[in-house]
Amino acid sequence: MNIVQSYTYMHMRNSIIIRMILILALYFGITYFGGHIGRKILYPIRLFVTFLHEFGHAIGAVLTGGWVEEVQINHDGSGWTRTANGNRPITIMGGYLGSAIFGNLLFYIGAKWKSLVNATLLLVVVSMLVTGFYWFNSLFTTSILVGFSLALCFIALKTNIGREVLMFLGLASIMYIIQDFNVGPSSDLAAYADVMVILPANVWMYIWLIIVVFLFFINIRLLLKNDYTYES
Q: Could you give the number of structural domains in the chain?
């Protein structure tokens, strides 16, 4: 490692750490000290995580030979996905674990690959529009996803904050998923325990949580490793 490489690595690593700390401080500050206003501010994040969750179910079904009939996002932040065929265990756990994978990818790309940020935002837009129209279920679901899509398109095409937005969406989603581990996927856990009868739902709950935390740990390790491929 020469002096230039060492300086570049330290600069980019410190930049990621500082941004991550600021995002976490903002998220947890709003969560625990924002009160009613804070819940309103984080409401879009809640809906975004629900989208990732339901999209994870959908992708799990499609990748295992099934298809998606409809996707619903509710006003209270809950949701459901109706699929047919496909591998049921993968489809079920695709919601919680899939949303964690998506969140980690968004954070990783935002932190490390500046050149891919806008393309990633637009790919999220395409995923939302496919969900809202092709897997249509309700006007609320579609309107929410269209609203998100318009906002992300504007950020990607008209601003320079795409990187920060992607990092915030990814990291906030991961934190929300971890916080919600014993509530959000309760119906999925019950369904998964019915299929995978070797363990009860409360055991699968902690297994899923451990996997999510491990994925986040690996993501941080990859981001901070010394490989000189960061884009400033």
A: 1
